[in-house]
């Protein structure tokens, strides 16, 4: 299951559309802890307002690599990562909401972007005003 982390993944459209005020169409899992997964939103477009927030950064899509370590390009339509909130969800529910189960074929973020993401998430975890948002099932709704 750890192979889910540090890859750009996409939600099923019906899940994303229901939660699009909170969630991006694309997410990047950052950690798995037992039966819980933590992830951040991917940015489909870069806006000037993200420039100096300290919570958003551009990624280099051309510096990704596959499961064999071969250099590849991410071709899923994100340009950056939003670390303004860290999301937590049950791992099984998370997997059920993904657009496909073929995540092993998705490339990993490049090493520089992985390190940058780790730095941003560490700052987020240590920030007393940070947001940890729990997404959990409640009568067929995700809260």
TrEMBL record:
Name of the protein described by the UniProt record: Uncharacterized protein
Organism: Mycoplasmopsis bovis (strain ATCC 25523 / DSM 22781 / NCTC 10131 / PG45)
